[in-house]
Design goal:
Blueprint (H helix, E strand, L loop, with lengths): L2 H13 L22 H66 L6 H7 L3 H72 L3 H24 L12 H12 L17 H11 L8 H7 L2 E2 L9 E4 L5 E7 L2 E4 L8 E4 L5 E5 L11 H8 L1
Antiparallel strand pairs: 1-6, 2-3, 2-6, 3-4, 4-5
């Protein structure tokens, strides 16, 4: 029983003149949010935000699969319509062939005509024509058979693709409900806090980030001499900077709002390079680089399960779409636990001489 509920029960019983039994030792009232420490509140909020972002990335992955599956269904529907049209034409040609065979069923065979012909050369020429017609008839039958097989195969593929699309649509709805449930938990916790608690939690978070940034710089993990971005990276970063101040919205890819991977994928898309939609796929499929090699435009991936991503701005700063309730902004690189970095426009390096390879290994 919660503390509030226990106090209500006690008050009602005393007012009625009832005698209460001793409260068991185990029935200790639970502390409400006002009695919890600021650090505990911040930990809970960060956990809920992270769970919401995990759910968002799951939704984004399903949305991307559904988008591709819808395109596949359209492609198969178009191919099936063409195959059915070809089948219709083949059946028409086969019907004409059957009628011709029926009409010529009482004719003397070409071989007998050749034996009885007065002009053998002309008969041979006719025989060549007859052979050509026979080959054309065989090809007509072959086209009919092939068209039937192709139409049947495409129809089967189209049914399977449609079933898969329906399954993905159902999963998308489930994922969407999961995101909303996580965000509702965040809203409930925030609504339970006083203005003083909210200020204290925000201040503690800023302090933690500043300390993490100092530790990152002191560790020497970052280079003091960053390379210049490529033309593509510069274009991606310029696009991201132009989105500063726009609100975070889960599942959004712009232009009015973004989630974290929506911002990074759109930025690099405007730079002319298509990259995966989700932060987890960006981490899994894009070339990884050491943090010391970071240059503007690279993507920084956060958390052990790669559920957050930002663009590196340079000099220890990132551009990110942080989380629900915040806007696209510039933040310290160490705003979240760093998993690693990837470079969407990494080019294969030329072959190095053996001596340099050995030196690099050392």
């Amino acid at each position: 029983m919660s503390g509030r509920l226990l106090r209500l029960v006690c008050t009602a019983a005393l007012a009625a003149g009832a005698v209460l039994a001793p409260v068991p030792a185990t029935a200790v009232p639970e502390p409400d949010d006002r009695e919890r420490t600021v650090a505990e509140l911040l930990t809970d909020l960060q956990r809920l935000y992270r769970e919401a972002e995990q759910a968002t990335e799951t939704y984004n992955a399903t949305e991307e699969k559904l988008r591709k599956q819808q395109a596949e269904v359209r492609r198969l529907d178009t191919a099936l319509a063409r195959a059915r049209l070809s089948l219709h034409d083949s059946r028409g040609a086969a019907g004409r062939l059957a009628r011709q065979q029926y009409q010529n069923s009482t004719d003397i065979s070409p071989y007998v005509r050749l034996l009885l012909a007065r002009d053998p050369q002309r008969a041979l020429d006719q025989g060549h024509v007859i052979g050509q017609l026979a080959r054309e008839r065989a090809e007509t039958v072959g086209r009919l058979t092939g068209s039937e097989r192709k139409a049947d195969g495409l129809a089967r593929e189209a049914r399977e693709a449609l079933d898969k699309r329906l399954g993905l649509a159902a999963r998308q709805k489930k994922d969407r409900d999961g995101v909303r449930e996580k965000l509702h938990a965040v809203e409930e916790l925030l609504a339970s806090l006083t203005p003083e608690q909210l200020d204290a939690v925000s201040e503690l978070e800023r302090t933690d980030i500043a300390r993490a940034q100092q530790d990152l710089v002191a560790s020497g993990a970052l280079s003091s001499d960053e390379d210049e971005p490529t033309r593509e990276a510069d274009r991606a970063l310029r696009y991201a900077v132009q989105q500063l101040g726009k609100p975070y919205k889960w599942g959004a890819e712009g232009p009015e709002s973004y989630d974290c991977s929506g911002l990074t994928s759109e930025a690099w898309g405007h730079a002319g390079r298509v990259i995966p939609r989700t932060s987890q796929e960006q981490w899994a499929r894009l070339p990884r680089i050491p943090l010391r090699d970071l240059r503007p435009g690279d993507l920084v991936i956060y958390f052990p399960d790669a559920t957050h991503v930002a663009l590196y701005l340079g000099e220890g700063k990132i551009v990110q779409a942080p989380r629900t309730g915040e806007d696209v902004k510039v933040s310290p690189l160490a705003s979240n636990p760093i998993l690693g970095a990837v470079r969407p426009d990494l080019r294969p390096e030329p072959h190095r001489p053996a001596e340099r390879d050995h030196g690099a290994a050392e």
